[in-house]
Amino acid sequence: MKITQTKFAELGNQDIYEYTLVNDQGITVSCITYGCIITKVVTPDRHGTYQNVVLGFDNLEDYLNHSPYFGAVVGRVAGRIKGAQFELDGVTYPLVQNNNGNHLHGGTVGFDAVVWEARMIETENEIGVEFFYMSPDGEGGYPGNLDMKVTYTLNNHNEFLISYNGVCDQKTLLNVTNHTYFNLSGDTERDILDHKLQLKSEQYLELTDELLPTGEFVNVDGTVFDFREGRAIRDGFISDHPQNLLAGRGYDHPFFLNANQDEEIILWDEKSGRKLTVETDECGVVLYTGNHLEGNFSVRGTKSRNYLGLCLETQGLPDSIHHPHFPSCVLDKNEEYRSVTKYIFATL
Q1: What's the alpha-carbon Rg for the chain, to the nearest Å?
Q2: CATH class for the region spanning 2-347
Q3: Which entry of 18, 139, 282, 313 is annotated as an active-site residue?
Q4: How many angstroms separate the Cα of 229 from the Cα of each of 226, 234, 238, 245?
Q5: Are 91 and 140 in contact (CB under 8 A)?
Q6: Tally of CA atoms within 13 A in the half-sphere of 331 that contains its CB
Q7: CA-CA distance, 347 to 336, in Å (whole number)?
Q8: How far apart are CA 348 and CA 339, in angstroms?
Q9: Confidence (pLDDT) at 173
């Protein structure tokens, strides 16, 4: 295994570095200190052809101007917070409005839009990068000085792990995820509509037309939201289910997981033979199928279009601060936030 560090870009007076992790099987993960963005993941298909299976850019300017959170760590709170405000112990905290009057993914200067400190890790069994960032009191509107650490590691079992750790000097909210867009066809040869997904989930969250949870858990039985036996993403695209239509013909929904660290999320592409298994200790995963990716920019030579990639955002349930029956994202003063998600790359 090996890890290398190169200069990726400059932002103001700060250097942005890219780290590339390569294991003994040739699996490669590249990431940068801006937003902890995962820029590339290179894996083999069933014939041994290595290609990039995530969406990203080759330069910082495109990340600054065009990126729909490609590969980034998002927070302090992933997803939308209704009305861009919340109440904690009788105090109302107004947040940055960046999504139709709501607050999305930590606001305009969330974890995805700052430069992190980094340190390389090399042990006998894994290689990786530790990222560090101190989010000051009031950033985005959130209370407390928050010390965050995000750790990316790769091992020779073709496992890539993301670990999140955070401690704050005030009671606050914290719910972090990674926003990588996967396309297992390799180098965006095809869109993701014919990818198949299996989820150990019996319920999803109903959304309003603002893509905020209504608070209702809906049983997946008999719907295109039932991924328990595996189904094509295309089913949501062709569906006339009102929830698929309001998401822009597809999915942008939180699923409540009824298993953890037990192959609860499996994505595969039959044509290439690539398979991704995701295991997490989080209670949910947001499936976003790239329904709004069309734009006037290119992704490494491919004009961006809808369904070019999909996200599997392992996290607590969105807007939980306004739904007391959801698992809480409140972090007490000096309590440690911890979360781990593992990505296992294989072939069929």
Answers
A1: 19
A2: mainly beta
A3: 313
A4: 8, 15, 19, 23
A5: no
A6: 27
A7: 36
A8: 28
A9: 98
Give the separation between CA 198 and CA 182, rounded to whole angstroms.
15
Helices (H), the chain: 60-66, 234-238, 242-246
Classify residue 6 as exposed, middle or buried by CB count within 10 Å of its CB (0-12, 13-18, 19+): exposed
For 23-36, how does the pLDDT look when each residue is reduced to its tens digit (9 = 90+)? 999 999 999 999 99
The average confidence (pLDDT) of the chain is: 97
Q: Pairing between strand 85-88 and 91-94?
A: antiparallel
Structure tokens at 179: 């926003």
Q: Is 159 a catalytic residue?
A: no
Sign of CA dihedral 33, 36, 37, 43: positive
Q: How far is Cα 38 from Cα 151, in angstroms, rounded to an integer?
A: 12
Contact status, residue 316 vs residue 283, Cβ threshold 8 Å: yes
The pLDDT, as a whole number, for residue 240 is 97
C-alpha angle 160-69-348 in degrees, rounded to nearest 5: 40
Options 179, 195, 253, 323, the catalytic residue? 179
| Helical H segments across 274-325, by residue range | none
Residue 322 a catalytic site member: no
DSSP-derived secondary structure letter, 188: T
Q: How many Cβ atoms sit within 10 Å of the Cβ of residue 119?
A: 12
What 8-state DSSP symbol labels residue 238?
H
Question: Domains of the chain: which residue ranges?
Answer: 2-347
Angle made by CA atoms 270, 162, 144, in degrees to the nearest 5: 140
